[in-house]
Amino acid sequence: MDVVATLASQRAVVIFSKSTCCMSHAIKRLFYEQGVSPAIVEIDQEMYGKDIEWALARLGCSPPVPAVFVGGKFVGTANTVMTLHLNGSLKRLLKDAGALWL
């Protein structure tokens, strides 16, 4: 869990992903289209990827990816992020975290 917290606090937006996951790709694309440059942690390419995946599952991520952190706080997986985007809350979160300047 400490590894996830450390990684999640390194940038305004951190996305834990798997390089082969289509939902991870969609969420990364959403952030890029918003003008955000998130840190991406591809857990299937990390030495301790299984430990990270287990820690994300313990946080309640089901499935474990994509898992999005904004301002060091867990926001949610794809469904939650898309809901926040559609209701306009995501931009506010991104602004508050310093990930967007608009």
UniProtKB/TrEMBL annotation:
GO terms for cellular component: cytoplasm. The keyword Cytoplasm applies. The keyword Cytoplasm applies. Its main location: cytoplasm. It holds the Pfam family Glutaredoxin. It comes from the Eukaryota. Residues 13-75 form the Glutaredoxin domain. It is found in: Cytoplasm. Keywords: Cytoplasm, Redox-active center. Belongs to the glutaredoxin family. CC-type subfamily. PANTHER family: GLUTAREDOXIN (PTHR10168). This is Monothiol glutaredoxin-S10. It comes from Cardamine amara subsp. amara.
